[in-house]
From TrEMBL:
One of its GO terms (molecular function) is G protein-coupled receptor activity. It comes from Haemonchus contortus. The chain crosses the membrane at residues 12-33, 45-65, 85-103, 123-148, 168-187, 208-231, 243-263. This is G_PROTEIN_RECEP_F1_2 domain-containing protein. InterPro entries: 7TM_GPCR_Srsx, 7TM_GPCR_Srsx_nematod, GPCR_Rhodpsn, GPCR_Rhodpsn_7TM. The keyword Repressor does not apply. CDD domains: 7tm_classA_rhodopsin-like. GO terms for cellular component: membrane.
Length: 302
């Protein structure tokens, strides 16, 4: 019997964390669909990021299932590529939308933003979402059409991304993450000078910044591991790098629901209402905040 390629600890992580992420991000998508209070561009971007993360998480289940069902723990690269296309799409889709959300928050501090949202909100969101989708589709096209050997591989989500596609999109993700950091750095500088029309939105901004920077930290940590390995001339097999990278990036994806619930009063109240956390709180006698906030929420603002 061939020993497991993926250590047991990694297998537990790649079942537990993606499951938590799948549930949490699905809840965010669900409440955004249900609640009219979450119709602003920022809220929609948050839901779409969560949707992308849901697709992303399916890739880890594919990895674990294929690892345990195959006698060699590996499958053909072509089959792996076909199975991981949806997860790869979700990974790049949500990555670009994190940048879209950062740019959206930066633009929201300027007067022209309100005019754009009042007149062309649907077009604005559609354009931003389409760009993210095109970016992700190009990644999938690269996976399909870039020539590669059909050797047996451990079906990690990034395994089908080979050659120039791996290099291009690896660099693209790092550029996106740097731009996210720059956007929020500028945002934090400007927000101190701008009086926001809704103080309640600050909690959503804080949540979004925390989540974005957590994901950025995950990607940067991965690159740091690779760079240290190169400096010390340590040869690290790519699938080990991929598994280690997942510890940071996927943990960040799994925290979305918890960050919004902990930091954002608005999302907390909506979660309480639509997934019955509020009912549970009443059962145990926990104090619930007033719902008076809803009167002042304009569903057209970010």
């Amino acid at each position: 019997m061939i020993p497991d390629i993926i250590p047991t600890a990694y297998q537990v992580f790649y079942i537990l964390i993606p499951t938590i992420s799948l549930i949490g991000n699905s809840i965010i998508v669900y409440v955004t669909i249900r609640s009219r209070l979450l119709r602003g561009p920022c809220n929609i971007f948050i839901a779409l990021i969560s949707f992308g993360d849901v697709l992303h998480m399916t890739g880890h289940f594919i990895m674990i299932i294929s690892h345990n069902l195959s006698p060699t723990h590996k499958i053909g690269r072509n089959l792996c590529s076909d199975m991981q296309l949806l997860a790869i799409f979700g990974m790049f889709f949500s990555s670009w939308l994190l940048l879209s959300a950062a740019l959206d928050r930066l633009m929201s501090l300027h007067t022209f933003y309100k005019f754009v949202i009042l007149r062309h909100a649907k077009l604005y969101v559609t354009v931003q979402t389409s760009i993210a989708a095109i970016f992700a589709i190009i990644a999938d096209i690269g996976v399909i059409f870039v020539p590669h050997d059909n050797d047996e591989v451990l079906c990690v989500i990034t395994e089908p991304i080979q050659g120039v596609v791996y290099k291009f999109f690896g660099q693209s993700i790092m550029v996106i993450n740097i731009l996210i950091v720059i956007c929020y750095a500028i945002f934090m500088c400007f927000i101190k000078r701008v009086r926001m029309s809704q103080d309640s939105m600050k909690h959503i901004y804080k949540s979004l910044i925390v989540i974005s920077l957590t994901v950025v930290f995950g990607w940067f940590s991965t690159m740091a591991i690779v760079c240290v390995g190169d400096i010390l001339h340590i040869k690290i097999e790519r699938f080990h790098v991929n598994l280690l990278a997942g510890l940071f990036v996927n943990f960040a994806c799994a925290t979305n629901f918890f960050v919004y619930y902990a930091i954002s009063n608005e999302y907390r109240r909506i979660f309480d209402r639509y997934i019955f956390i509020g009912r549970f709180k009443r059962m145990i006698g926990a104090k619930e905040p007033s719902d008076a906030w809803t009167a002042g929420v304009d569903s057209r603002t970010g």
